[in-house]
Specification:
single chain, mainly beta, eight-stranded antiparallel beta sheet, 10 strands
Length: about 200
Amino acid sequence: MLKLKLMSGVTGLVAVAVSTSAMAGGLERHGYDVDLLFQNSPFYFDGSVTYVMPNRKIKNARDESVPESNPTNLNSLGYSTTADEYENYADPYLGGKAAIGDAIDCMVDYSEPWGANSNPGRHWAGAKDMTEIEVFSRNYGGTCSYKFDAGPGQFRIIGGGFYQEIGGHKEAVVFAPEILPGMGPRSGRISPDTAASAVWTA
């Protein structure tokens, strides 16, 4: 089995009552926000599960790894030129907030901010490049804010941190069974070690 190390990085963020979310090559499923801190109730809980059905199809796929005249070309072997690309997925979120006195609010939450699952299978013309790719993540966050009066409104200082795990795998056909009948399909799998990072933001 081939193994590929997945490097992790640490990023800092300065925020004063502002939250932003970054796109990451279309992999972002759930951005991070601090809305719970601004709930008027001293205790507040929020949870949701969003179910997404991408319904994306691959059409006119070609095996360009070798010429079409080559006996190992998957189009020549009769592999399909169409496939269902993305799997349906659920995007969960769970969070809670508590007030500590009149000036401090704290929240904790769980989310799966990054993810992708493309699974066209082993019987399409692009199977040498990919039969399945999966990326998953688990994020555990904690954030607090300190507020005080400033003119007609309030000023907040927000800080916190999170622990995040990211992992995944990729599979591809390396030997089509039709070339030597009886040998069965041969596929390769790259499984990066799960990367974890802890980040403090203030």
